[in-house]
Specification:
The chain has about 130 residues and is of the alpha+beta class. The protein contains 4 helices and 7 strands.
């Protein structure tokens, strides 16, 4: 098992867009990624975590906090995957391909979703350059 002492907080914080507890559709309060597991165990509601290009260190923190399967972390750490839906234990891992118009060009990206009981995590990757014509 990974020890959180080995992970510097600054590594985890640089890619966190938001991490908050929601109850009855309303934001209750912001929480630290490192307290997600404790909050899930004692408070009603859903934790929403938004990430942008997380590194392996942050994904390992999520693994510890949410009890995620090792293969899910490996998948989440790998960009440029095909669209898919995988079930790991009691969590879903979803890969979505995204497209965004930038003038006359289309930028392609990827969104990973990790959905479990009481938590939802969205991770976006930067758009890739347009496909060659």
């Amino acid at each position: 098992m990974l020890d959180l002492v080995d992970i510097k907080p600054t590594e985890a914080q640089r890619v966190v867009v938001a991490c908050a507890l929601y109850r009855d559709g309303r934001r209750q309060r912001d929480i630290a990624v490192e307290e997600m597991g404790a909050v899930l165990g004692c408070e009603d509601g859903i934790i929403w975590l938004g990430l942008h290009e997380p590194d392996e260190a942050l994904l390992r923190i999520l693994q510890v906090q949410l009890g995620l399967h090792e293969l899910m972390i490996e998948d989440a750490n790998q960009a440029h995957q095909r669209a898919k839906l995988d079930v790991y234990d009691n969590c879903l891992f979803i890969v979505l391909r995204t497209a965004q118009s930038q003038g006359r060009e289309i930028q392609y990206g990827e969104t990973h979703l990790i959905i479990g009981k009481g938590s939802s995590c969205r991770s976006d990757t930067a758009p890739r350059p347009p496909m060659p014509k």
